[in-house]
């Protein structure tokens, strides 16, 4: 395998903005997964470049002129997508090499992930042809490149949303969900690479590229394995001071690791080593899809935090108790407000049935937007408060509250225009079966998210995201102050 | 305080099915929280008994004849709800005692939760009047009784759904949300008691009552504190072999405990003691609202499980890896299927791009209901499998799948009519901002839940609920087998 020579960053850019794409293996069945469904999705997304379907038994496919093979094309395509049976892949790669095609995505499965000798040999053959011809190969067994700015969106959110997120993933399915989830909540994707078995280009190659890409602010990774762990470690350590990396590591348990072997044909590695990796690189570890997306939302939207003190604004004594417990369990603090803040707050809060302080239990915050903005203003001035989490309610018949004008526009406007703004997130829960309430909850979350203010479906998810966010900034600040003392001392 | 004399179980029944209710403190402001909003909610819910508004300055309230005081009523009301300023409460209680009224709910706040000497003295006064007159008092500082079968639903889900859940809670707000959440997902409530500061009747009194109530199958508790911990312990230990108890304990951290003091004026207690409580009683510990509702859904709907082996059916290799990790982290196992099962399954699963085994990665399960039922049938026969978790997808443009007829009715029908059925739950996630997809996800979860098949919005929530469920049954089975060996040995 190509152990020593790594592609340069500029090399990988070619995957994401190809002007022409040849798709090999466009079966005639419209419903089946493969070259044809990729072709259809490119058409749906309005990909502006040229698509060359390769099919020796058809003159055109979906109204697009088809060619019998790569050699017959009128030009050398920027990118080739291979979606044929695995055993036929090496022959195509040899042809790519001969024609001078460099960028290749192998969609096909049937390599080392089968767990057979035949599959392993086939995958080694892919790597050796790549080394021989200097081919840049994404895959096999993966969805390939994704880039909304170039409308290279044959999977994931379609047509997708351009933005600052970079994704490197050994699971196409998870990455499809991630791009959809974050895009619909206002966080666009710059580039995603679904890298599958990573037989040639591996996660460190993509990480090196995305760490240097100025269009990317936050990097999300889903990894099951890595060949050159040391290189991943060094690249991650070098990248985290510049941009956060949020890593969902698959195969952290024995059963998960066994499943990894069937999925991408790789070894998931030792969990202790991965723990050390997180500890020493400052990469943010998450363990499921929602935790991944939630952290990304926080990293992509919030201004830096100066500390771990959360001000919890909501209503309901039980919630205030449970939320406080939850915040502390996540490693954050729920500090007492400053005497100055308490002086402002006390007159706002009834003595009975509410709690003036942190957490703040004041039912009025749910219905009176101005009152909430007053409280946010207090929080943004209070030196003990570094982040704010606001619990919102959707109206329910069970609650004893009157109808009021919609306070949301005023709240959003206040936060967006406030120059003292500290990281502020909202929670709007609804997980019951009333479809109308469910729709109200989702719509309200959406309004905040689209305004760049993260809104989560539960306090627990919100506080976990804030905790990840705070730990990243805390590490950065420690590092900066260490460097400063060092240079002052020197 | 009434330390020695405990009310009998039959005593407490009177709170939940009163034929007449007097409400004291019906202010004229329609929008404010208090007696008036309770009155309005009783009217909305269609409470069939007689309501007596008590207001010395009005002849009628909302078209209902009002009375100046309790003594003027034409009968002794079954239940009195007090919603006046705290300092005026003792006088009313004395009057109740004189008139022979026994069941009293004190809605009013302003007692020990204020943290003032005055508040503490007032609460002691409530307790001593109760002891003197043998009054049964729910509260103060709480929402009181709730019983959908009797339409005593002035808070919580309105009109609510009758069912097998009993709730004992020191937070009205949390309990409102819980009744709404579970009722809308097909799990009805038999009786709920929002007990607030619990100055007279405390959680052990309600637990003793609900443990003996045959209409109640599952007990949910939210507690911040308890005066007689030993009695709670013994009652819980006696109850768990008959019905599961799911306890959300507030104030598990220092900040949470400080908030408890402001909320219900009590001491949250030592966390180590509570851990021992859970360990030794078999009460299920949860730490947030959704975990509470999710566990209740599992306990209320699923048949007993014979072990900890989960069969994970879904699609996507990455998901299969993450789900396996998640199940093992929750203390469950993901066993290999029996050779007989593998023989049936192998021909169903393509060699490349899928995983035949446990977890099962087979895209076809999402679109082909018959295929999913075949797999469930295999799971229900396989001795290694004790529970099944099925990941469902809602269609998204990012996925490469064709439209198919709706497989859900066939799946629900198969599970409901299968006599070998093992505990089976579904996960249908969608947390993005696309409102149509969000609605589809919620509607699909609802369809399963209404059919008595729990469906959760994430795998993590589903597996946590199954883990709670399995630990409860495991403990029961250990206990039974220990008792059997003992009687065989004797």
From the structure above, extract its key features:
alpha/beta, 5-stranded parallel β-sheet, elongated, 490 residues, 6-stranded mixed β-sheet, Rossmann fold, homodimer
Q: How are the secondary structure elements laid out?
A:
Two copies of one chain form a homodimer.
Chain A: H1 9-13, E1 20-24, H2 35-45, E2 50-54, E3 60-61, E4 64-65, E5 79-82, H3 89-99, E6 103-106, H4 117-133, E7 136-138, E8 144-146, E9 162-169, H5 172-184, E10 189-194, H6 203-212, E11 218-223, H7 229-239, E12 245-249, H8 254-264, H9 271-281, E13 284-286, H10 289-301, E14 310-314, H11 317-329, H12 339-345, E15 360-361, H13 364-367, H14 369-381, E16 387-392, H15 408-417, E17 424-428, H16 435-450, E18 455-456, H17 459-489
Parallel strand pairs in A: 1-2, 1-5, 5-6, 6-7, 9-10, 9-11, 11-12, 12-13, 14-15, 14-16, 16-17, 17-18
Antiparallel strand pairs in A: 3-4, 8-10
Helix pairs in contact in A: 3-4, 5-10, 6-7, 10-17, 14-15
Question: Can you walk me through this structure?
Answer:
Chain A is an alpha/beta fold and 490 residues long. Chain A has 2 domains: 290 residues, Succinyl-CoA synthetase domains (Rossmann fold, 3-Layer(aba) Sandwich), CATH 3.40.50; 173 residues, Rossmann fold (3-Layer(aba) Sandwich), CATH 3.40.50.261. Chain A has 17 helices and 18 strands. Chain A has a 6-stranded mixed beta sheet, sandwiched between helices. A 5-stranded parallel beta sheet of chain A has the order 2-1-5-6-7, with helices on both faces. In chain A, strands 15-14-16-17-18 form a 5-stranded parallel beta sheet, with helices on both faces. In chain A, α7 links the parallel β11 and β12. Chains A and B meet through α2, α5, α8, α10 and α11 of A and α2, α5, α8, α10 and α11 of B.
